[in-house]
TrEMBL record:
Source species, domain of life: Bacteria
Naturally occurring in which organism (per UniProt): Leifsonia kafniensis
PANTHER family tied to this protein: L-AMINOADIPATE-SEMIALDEHYDE DEHYDROGENASE-PHOSPHOPANTETHEINYL TRANSFERASE, PHOSPHOPANTETHEINE TRANSFERASE
MF terms in GO: transferase activity
Protein name in the entry: 4'-phosphopantetheinyl transferase superfamily protein
Entry keyword set: Transferase
Entry-linked InterPro entries: 4-PPantetheinyl_Trfase_dom_sf (IPR037143), P-Pant_transferase_sf (IPR050559)
Length: 218
């Protein structure tokens, strides 16, 4: 696994699921009752694996930021609309420092990535560079016929996650520019490190805010 500083108070950590094999028992022990239920009822083995590793990486990164242990960090992803376990992840820990962190998680085939940002909403999205013609056409239908549709899509997804409502907002409402985007009058800026040539990554930062709050997907 690797860690990179995105901004002054923002960090991301990523790992390939294959590199984490063997740590399932430890990772499962860290899960809350709701997380274990979600893990157990996820039908796709690959999706189940990515969820488990995402929760592990997120706990580890939060624990490092607040000077705690992963076992002392709880991740709540309760949706504020329906109460389901698919909302924006919010961390709690032995101190209030955890609540000051905004969290985001993204995963795709071969990669799991998490991020934290202190006092500023963050959203991340990672996608594999190798996509089928059908997938690319589907992306163009939503992201528009841009020169770099996959990059355009990761930017849109990152903004929607930073906004907190995810795909409950029409992706076409996100107006993407070269270094930032606008959604309903709120401006977002991007950070897009070249962390792995096999993937496209976008992270979006919203305006400074107070403690993190749950909503849509993170």
């Amino acid at each position: 696994m690797s860690t990179l500083q995105l901004d002054t108070d923002s960090w991301m950590r990523w790992a390939e699921p294959a590199a984490l094999v063997g740590g399932e028992t430890r990772a499962i022990r860290l899960l809350s009752a709701d997380e274990r239920s979600r893990y157990a009822t996820t039908l796709s083995a690959s999706a189940r694996e990515r969820f488990l590793w995402g929760r592990l990486l997120l706990r580890e990164l939060v624990a490092e930021q607040i000077g705690s242990r992963p076992a002392e960090v709880t991740i709540d992803a309760r949706c504020t609309d329906c109460g389901g376990p698919h909302g924006r992840p919010v961390a709690t820990g032995p101190s209030d420092d955890a609540r000051a962190l905004w969290l985001s998680v993204s995963a795709c085939a071969g990669m799991v990535l998490v991020a934290t940002s202190r006092g500023r909403p963050i959203g991340i999205d990672v996608e594999p560079c190798a996509v089928s013609t059908g997938q690319l056409q589907a992306i163009r239908q939503v992201a528009g016929d841009t020169e770099h549709p996959l990059r355009h899509w990761t930017r849109i997804e990152a903004v929607l996650k930073a906004d907190g409502r995810g795909l409950r907002v029409d992706p076409r409402q996100v107006r993407v520019h070269t270094h930032g985007a606008e959604l309903e009058g709120t401006l977002y800026r991007f950070a897009e490190p070249d962390f792995d040539p096999r993937f496209v990554l976008s992270s979006a930062f919203g305006p400074a805010s107070g403690p993190a709050a749950g909503a849509g997907p993170g």
